[in-house]
Amino acid sequence: MPVAGPADSRPAIGVLISGRGSNLQAILDAAAGGQIPARVAVVISNRADAAGLERARRAGVPTEVLPHRDWSSREAYDRALVEALRRYGVRLVCLAGFMRVVGSPVLEAFPQAVLNIHPSLLPSFPGVDAPAQAIAHGVKVSGVTVHLVTADLDAGPIVLQAAVPVHDGETAEQLAARQLSEEHRLYPEAIRRWLAGGWRIDGRRFVTTES
Ligand code: GRF
Question: Is 118 a catalytic residue?
Fold first, then answer.
């Protein structure tokens, strides 16, 4: 099993969380198991009570708590995020249930290098409560999306998607739980593809250039 340390030359990932951190766990497990050739160098949360911080500590990954209310503007907060991510040599930023919009300071510091996971088949149901939106609209199929983050909310180039059927009569919570299992599979796979290179952005599209 790869072990993080001074001699660890694998690319550094920074994961941003606000809560439970089950996607963080999937990423930590995939890195530890060698499914993704990278290491999680830092986990940053805007909330000190995020349960995911404990997952990071258990995995021996450094954590940083940056409560957004400690900064006077969104831009100043974003600059603090960039500074922390740079301190750990981060190459790829993964938003995993990070309940803040990241703005231009982060996107300019990490061009085409910020990923997010969203519990719907984007562009359907962007924003909050996507599973509830899917139930309210009566769709028969929803899913999960990993996309590159751009200035437009939940509208960046799509790296990977997976469909999740919506069962008759199920609640938003039940759908969200089944989506979550797909997220745990899809996010590490999307990270693996991003790290492998051989892709480019063509307009809104994430296009693989190698077979
Ligand atoms: C997931 O549903 C993800 O799609 C959304 O926020 C939730 C995070 O869950 N962006 P967790 O903290 O990874 O368990």
Answer: yes
